[in-house]
Amino acid sequence: MNKTHTSDDTPQRELILMTISGPDRTGLTSALTDILARFGATILDIGQADIHHTLALGILFKTDAHKSGDILKNMLFKTQEMNVQVQFSIVPDEAYEKWVGLQGKNRYIITLLGRKITARQIADVSAIVAEQGLNIDSITRLTGRMPLDEETQPAAKACIEFSVRGTPKDKTVMQQSFMELASRLNFDISLQEDTMYRRSRRLICFDMDSTLIRTEVIDELADRAGVGEEVRAITESAMRGEIDFRESFTRRVALLKGLDVSVMKEIAENLPVTEGVERMMEVLKRSGYKTAILSGGFTYFGNYLKQKYGFDYVYANDLEVGEDGKLTGRYTGDIVDGQRKKELLRLLAQVENIDIAQTIAVGDGANDLPMLAEAGLGIAFHAKPKVKAEAGQSISTIGIDGVLYFLGFKDSYTKEARH
């Protein structure tokens, strides 16, 4: 056994790693740590996980050398009594000091998200982590237990979180490898540095059209005005970043001239809301987040969502209405384009007295890229390829409540929030 010696070569200390596995038992951890306490051992590290009622518990402890035999004997009796297996291994001082030296090293959180998580996805992500010279400290499931029959729950979600330590050989290459893998194996992945800001996000800003709702409101208005095809062609070009948003906005609004303003109420009441909005907003509000809609769409519809779901802020565009109650084909005020969204994000951070690193932005189009890049965490949601590539973090396989997993929420927390 590894021991620390005094000048008269009398052993003084041993570092012992104890690993326990077997059926979980109420009071097991208490019983084992009580033995350590009775013999004056010091716990240096401890970790426990429970998978399908099967326990995995590890305890690294320091003890006086002359007490280690009694500790191990008592542990063997207790674990046999409680029907679990125990193994002991001696940890050399130099190995422990090397482990301590890892404190302060970079830590990253890697989140895997999809309708289901497969062994191939986990294996390939783990391989990339290893290639980059990082160590996996822990793997945690954030979602509830998966059903055996996936067809009975087509909207099921699966998410696991890796906590890894170290400095990547090439973070850009690692990020690119993750994104390519996610596209090929049909899942979402997020790589975030595990800083204090990740654990203290306070403001989250959303695009509206094709993000919070599954349509572009201007297209809905255009359909009522009989110019749907023309407006959609301009919308798609703008979302792909092929034409300037201001130009496309002005051209599209002009095509709405003569539309009766009463149709806006009918459209608002029938908006196809994105999967997961209600659940996400309930959790964010209960958790103290401030929420904002920053939209290149229209204020009328943003205010409708604000009233329905409790958003704190709405910034969007205002359509000019003539005395006859019809749209004039013009807008009032400044256009909320990509640059304006970025400015509003910074302004709201100042108003809420938070660091920009504590902000989150979620959007799908090219005009969302400035605020996605500016925010502490930018998430492309069901976005065009160009936006996904530039945003770094993306969700494409499930609803918008997937944002909660990127923030580290577990399903168990969100269920508690609803009661």
What does this entry look like structurally?
Strands 13-12-11-10-14-15-16 form a seven-stranded mixed sheet, with helices on both faces. Strands 1, 2, 3, 4 and 5 form a five-stranded antiparallel sheet that branches. Helix content is 39%, strand content 27%. Helix 1 packs antiparallel against helix 2 (65-81), helix 4 (119-131) packs antiparallel against helix 5 (171-185) and helix 6 packs antiparallel against helix 7. It has 419 residues and is α/β, with parallel strands linked by helices. The radius of gyration is 27 Å and the shape is elongated.
Give the percentage of residues in beta strands: 25-35%
Gyration radius, to the nearest Å? 27 Å
Distance between the termini: 53 Å
Helix content estimate: 25-40%
Structural class: alpha/beta
Number of helices: 16
Spatial shape: elongated
Mean pLDDT: 89
**Uncertain residue ranges:** 1-7
